[in-house]
Specification:
mainly alpha, globular
């Protein structure tokens, strides 16, 4: 990966190989290419921010090493796998602690929960991850996951629920179009960094155009 910078190359190379191996059979929206895109987004944002680039790089690579939605909702597996890997790589404990905290706090989780950890590095990696959830890629990932879970594309009588708790959000089986309103369209206003906000606006606008076209085709007027 030619865009590795400023961190011991061996650790990043090992992290890349480790993640590729762990996610070789992953669902298409949460596979290695998702990680690669988030990494690129994170580096792009980090260039405009004062941050610990090593933490940003490692957190971006390891943030979805074991997404809880593919592990019966268990949110402890990913942080544990990341910690074990970084410990074996002899990464400093301070860095490990920071990376694990980012992994534990990066997810949307319905948007209705209180974060207990804050850092500029978390803001950067979170923005990078959220950028991959919106726009053209976000639309593709959303429908891929909906198909993976055998969910309806759209049902006019099942309305989006904007007040779900974290647990309700995790257990939701609503049609895929609802996810636009329950998460994707909310992300633009939840971006942390100026670069993230700028990039999110364009992707947000694209999703709104897509939905306009979708409803037109659904209702037979386009």
């Amino acid at each position: 990966m030619e865009f590795f910078i400023q961190t011991k190359m061996s650790v990043l190379e090992n992290a890349e190989n480790f993640v590729k191996q762990q996610l070789k059979s992953a669902e298409g929206g949460h596979d290695w290419f998702h990680i690669e895109r988030v990494y690129k987004n994170a580096i792009l944002i980090a260039k405009e921010e004062s941050c610990n680039i090593e933490v940003v790089q490692l957190a971006a690579l390891l943030h979805d090493i074991a997404d809880s939605k593919f592990h019966n909702g268990d949110e402890t597996i990913g942080p544990k796998i990341a910690r074990d890997f970084l410990t074996k790589e002899n990464v400093a404990e301070e860095t490990i602690h920071h990376v694990v905290n980012i992994i534990e706090n990066i997810s949307f989780k319905g948007g209705n929960f209180k974060k207990d950890f804050h850092s500029k590095e978390l803001e950067i990696v979170q923005d990078a991850d959220r950028l991959d959830a919106i726009g053209a890629i976000g639309i593709a990932r959303t429908f891929n996951y909906g198909g993976f879970k055998n969910r309806a594309i759209y049902h006019p009588e099942i309305l989006p629920n904007l007040s779900m708790s974290k647990e309700e959000y995790k257990k939701s089986t609503a049609p895929t179009i609802n996810h636009f309103y329950e998460k994707l369209l909310l992300l633009k206003d939840k971006m942390n960094t100026q670069t993230g906000k700028k990039l999110a606006q364009k992707r947000h606008d694209f999703m709104e155009l897509y939905l306009e076209q979708f409803y037109g085709e659904w209702n037979g007027i386009i």
